[in-house]
Structure formats: structure tokens, C-alpha cells
Amino acid sequence: MRFTLNGTAVSLDVVGTHRLLDVLREDLHLTGTKEGCGEGECGACSVIVDGEVVDSCLVAVGQVEGCKVITVEGLADGGRLTALQQAFIEHGAAQCGICTPGMLLAAHVLLQQARHLSAADVREGLAGNLCRCTGYTKIIDAVLACTK
Amino acid sequence: MHEVSYLRPKNLADAVRLYRTTAGCRLLAGGTDLMVMLHARTLRPEPRALLDLWSLPELKGVRRVNEGLEIGAAESYTAIIRSPEVQRDLPALVAAARTIGAAQIQNRGTLGGNLANASPAGDTLPVLLAYDAVIVTDRRSIAIDTFFIGYRKTALQPDELITAVRFPLGRQVEFRKVGTRAAQAISKIVMAVSRSPARVAVGSVAEVPLRARQAEAALERGDLQGAVAAVAEDIRPIDDVRSTAVYRRAVTQNVLRELLENVRSPRT
To answer: Tell me, what's the ipTM?
Structure first.
């Protein structure tokens, strides 16, 4: 099967019912995508498929045939961080870091889809991403800093 | 370990044929329920193949048909929420879709999946009941009030697949979900109400999403207080990890009272 991963065409021989999450981590060795609950509750495994954020634990890899997939590894351009990643650093928007890749990807889509975002919009937009360190305030501040 | 194979049909006719002829085949759409169970190996019987309906164009889209609106069975909740037609004609469905999970789930969850899964807590199901939605399959149309026949059991034949859901227009439906938090919550109770015709549909209060028939009869007579009293008799709630029967009965009555205050009198 073929799809585009972080801007590069990939061709793989995998069973189509394997979870996208496992194929990313185990077959493609992109371990930035984290497994949290494995049940679509926590958002740690969030990736972007054709412009929309999804839980990669709920996607059969066969379903992304021909799609554009972006993982956290695909956000930065070489060593150059996105404004959002930079804002996460500046606001201290990470504690243990497990939720960070998913938060970044969900927030990335949110920023791309809406020009103006209130704190309530950001909370709703990130409602599918749980931070067990409960560091939400700084995460929301970091996202809001990118809407200016 | 045996592998579950992946089948991607070329079109709807191909999907219908594969579903009929492949042993141990389960349907896959957005995967929000199925992929969890597949990974945990809790699907019974264990499937040998998943037939992926997600990208079939025949199962996507929102369109006007005759006197109603038809939504493809594999259309995502996000597309439903964004559809101007659904926003205008079926606002209660938009309200329900917005309470499902969060962005990640709304981007993958589908009406076909909610129906086929037939969870008593399915968030769109009371709305579908209140609108008298019609479930269109590869071979027939099924009235929603005959669709849920037992706990997670539906009127679908073993090789039958849902292609679309049809809604009549011009009905005012109010929706309310009560859960532990605003997002990512499975409901403690979920309700949709229409005043005319009288429809009181409730989820998470019985083994199926149900119509509260005695409450509807009272509502049809214009007896709002009677409807609130009767709904407690219509439902069959249990104690479980999310709530208790006592709480559910009380909240069902409170939510019905609140929704009836919101629903305007029949349009003239």
C-alpha cells in the first residue's frame, strides 16, 4: 500500500487491518506518535490524515491508502520549529511530554481551520487530548499565542 | 496469531457482494468502536476480514430526496456538523454530533456505525428516533422504531449493510445529553423530544434506545406534566459504572421537563 507520510511517498507491505499507530511506530520507526489508552479517549496517538486530526489507534492502516498523513515528526521543517512548537517551548506547555505530540497536531489543525480562536474554542478543539499532568493552562496559552 | 485481512471494495455493489460472500466478515467505517474491539480481541465471533466502507462515495454526502434529507451512512459527524443543509433542517442532529467524543472521534464516527453498533448509549440514536428517521440499506428501508430489537441487536440481516439515513423535514426536535464532562463522555442519559408529532426518545435508560410511549401519549393530549410523570414508567434504567437507576430516572424527568419548555408549540 502507498500513502504520503510527512510529505514523502511511502510504500509498505503490511496487513491493512493493523492500526496506523502500530505501523507508524513499529514498521516506520516514527515513535513520536504515542500510545495512551488505545481506545480513542486520550488523543496521545493523534495524527493528521488529509487535514483532519484522528486517533491513529482507531485507524486501520489500509484506510490511509492514498492519503496524506502528518505525524509530529512532520511539523518542523528540518531543524526549524513551527511557531506553535516554539510557543509550546516558550510557555512551558509540556510536563511529562506524553500528550505533547497529539496536542501539537490537534492544535495545528485548529490553527489552520480557524482564523480567530477564543480560549473556549481552543479548549473545545483540544477536548480530545488529555494531559494527565493537567498542564492545560499553559498549553492553551501557547495555542492562543499563535492566533495573534 | 491469525491475521484479520483487509478488504477495500471498489464500489457499493462490490461491497455488497463481498459482504455476502466472505466468511467471518465485519464492516468497518470510522473504526471508533470496531478498532478498539479488534485490538483488544473482544469481537465475537472473531472476524477473519474487515470490509472497509469508509471511502465509498455512495455512502458519503448529504442530499435532498423528495420531501427529506438523506445522509450517507459513512459520512463523518464532522461533515454532518459542517453541512449547511443539516444545520438548517436538522439542528438537533448537529447538536448531538457535537457532543460525540471530540474532534478525533467526530472526524471518524458515522451514523451507519452508531446504528449498526446499536449501543443503548449511542448519542445520535434518540435524535433519529425523534425525527422518525428511515434507515436505508442495500435492499430496503427500515423505520427506526423497528430497528433496535435488543441489547446491541438490530433488525439488520447478517449480510445487510446500511447505506444512508433519511430524515423528514419540518419537525422541531430538542436534544440534551447528560454526561460526566462536556467531551469524551458516554452519556448517563441522552434525550431527544419533538412536540408535534409527540416523540420522546431516550438513550442509556434501557437495553435499547427507546421511545417513551406513555409520555408521548400524554404529550399528544397536551398534558406536559403527565408526560414527565409517565416517562419514569417508560424507561428501564440500571445501575452501572456511569450512573444509577435512581439518578437516571430523576434526570430523565428533569431533562424532559426542560426540553418541553424549549420546544415551541406546533407551527401553524
So the answer is: 0.96
